[in-house]
Amino acid sequence: MVGYPASWVNNPDIIRLNDNMVSVNSALEIDLTGQINSEQIGDRPFSGTGGQLDFVRGAYAARNGRSFIALRSTAQSGFVSRIVPRLLGGAVTDPRNDVQFVVTEYGCVNLKGLSIPQRARALIQIASPEFQDHLEREATSLGWI
Length: 145
Prior knowledge:
This protein has 145 residues and is an alpha/beta fold. It is 28% helix and 23% strand. It has helices spanning 6-9, 12-15, 52-61, 116-125, 129-141, and strands at residues 22-26, 29-31, 36-37, 40-41, 44-45, 66-70, 74-75, 80-81, 83-84, 101-104, 107-110. The strands form 4 sheets. Strands 1-6-10-11 form a 4-stranded mixed sheet. A hairpin with a 2-residue loop joins strand 10 (101-104) and strand 11 (107-110). The longest helix is centred in the last third of the chain and has 13 residues, at 129-141.
């Protein structure tokens, strides 16, 4: 068996050569513009980026490829929304323009090509119902919807 270095395995140009490539990654939070934080909880580092962005980009660029970010809509036993107006963690693992599908237990949305207002509305739809009104008010106050 041959091992390959991360510089090859995590290279989006290599990943995209796999037809029908699907990447599935997780997130700690996503803001209403589609930015992903998978590294920090508040000011505390939680993990490194690994190859997440490499696989997000490589899978999307592959022929018939798809990239998914899957997360529960809440944390802390339902008391905290993981879909937030702005990232609380400060780290941006995946920039909004690279995010394709986002999945919670309330559905799946495709953010590719959507405007900020469209992204905000789509993400509010897959947020936990008890946080949707708050997120809509915040998006409105930020001028996004």
